[in-house]
Amino acid sequence: MSRLRILLVTRSNTVSEAISSRLQEHADFFVTKKIISNGSSDPMHNVQSKQDVMLLHYAPGFGELEHLAKSTIQKRMPLIVLGPANDPEAMRLAMRAGASDYISQPVQQDELSSALRQVSDQLKDKITEHGKLIAVTNSKGGSGASFVATNLAYALNQGKTNRTILVDLDLQFGGLSRYLDLKPKRGVAEALEAADQMDEVSSEAYVTRHNSGLRLLAAHTERLLLSRDVPAENFDGLLQILQRNNDYVIADLPRRIDMLSAMLLERSDQILLVVQQSLAHINDAARMIHLLTKELAVPKDRIKVIANRYSKKSIIDGDDIKKALKIERIWIIPNQYQQVSESVDTGIPLMQDAKNSAAGKAIQMLEQNVRGIDSEESPAGLLGRALPSFLGRR
Ligand SMILES: Nc1ncnc2c1ncn2[C@@H]1O[C@H](COP(=O)(O)OP(=O)(O)OP(=O)(O)O)[C@@H](O)[C@H]1O
Ligand SMILES: [Mg+2]
Questions:
Q1: Which of 112, 127, 153, 381 is the most exposed place for a label (fewest CB within 10 A)?
Q2: CATH of 132-391, one of 3.40.190.10, 3.40.50.300, 3.90.226.10, 3.20.20.70
Q3: For residues 35 and 48, is the Cβ–Cβ distance under 8 A?
Q4: Which residues line ion ligand 2, judged by CB < 5 Å?
Q5: Measured in angstroms, how far is the CA atom of residue 330 from the centroid of ligand 2?
Q6: Is 92 helix (H, G, I), strand (E, B) or coil?
Q7: CA 176 / ligand 2 centre spacing (Å)
């Protein structure tokens, strides 16, 4: 069953948190939060990603329902309004804006879920199954994001049923083709240009295949492509095709929040933030988590922090990182200079030649978690078990 993409629009942080945390308990709902600030009456302002239904928390006097009522029927998406009880004017406005349901506050969870399920049933044929989108980025350049993205994608693609594509979104300096020793003829830039006429079959013409079966949509290397030159709808269209066509889409992102990366981060199922053990990395990771959760309203539980090149000699350990970033769990990939540099230099993924090395095993743990098959062991337990073997504490 594919998930219903819900755009939750409100002016209140409290309402946003309360409603989204309840909805996120349902595995078949995917919530994107949007807080509107004074001055704008368009609930879709700056929303780039494709959504199935809008859940609008209505507060009188800001004009959102009036704005929606004015838009053409073709442009409207299914709408459910949460508003004050016994307010005939609010109910009338909701009807005019095309709402299929008006749910009075305080919101009853059952009533809300059943209204959303109704929309989901109506859209059944339109909501297509889509693969998981995983963004990999770093808190500072050179942390190992591309290494993690490549090897995670390689590991995921080994599972026979997991069709995986690796996408290089470092449009200016991307080098994933080097990591896989491939010479792409086409890539992201050409795919974006053609996105408006592309379908699942023709999209494969832009992909380069590794001999393991892993597919790469490479970054452009011949000419400069700036993210501001890419129309948002082409990027959205390309992502939709990639997600429909694959079980996993692994996107390697440079550390920059611009229109394209914001769109991708907002709709990612998981964001892997690769850091190293230094104060500078941790400070930047904290800033990145702040931007993701506050500016892009990404729920914190979609962010996974990966401490790469981990060494017991550092004065900063895993617990310090967790405490500083206020997170419960981190994933650790040990520092294995020789094997990793050899893999990067030869273009043979570590997971191909050395999957049982310490770093390889750490990637396997991450891969199992991404696939949702790791044990619900406590973070301390996992860390405790993983650490001694490669830190020589046993
Ligand atoms: N676990 C590791 N152990 C040892 N070396 C590593 C490890 N992970 C990455 N490296 C090394 O770090 C270097 C940088 O890695 P990578 O290119 O993946 O970083 P990045 O975060 O993608 O950098 P950029 O910001 O340039 O995109 C690589 O040359 C690689 O050899
Ligand atoms: Mg990189």
A1: 381
A2: 3.40.50.300
A3: no
A4: 145-146
A5: 20
A6: helix
A7: 8
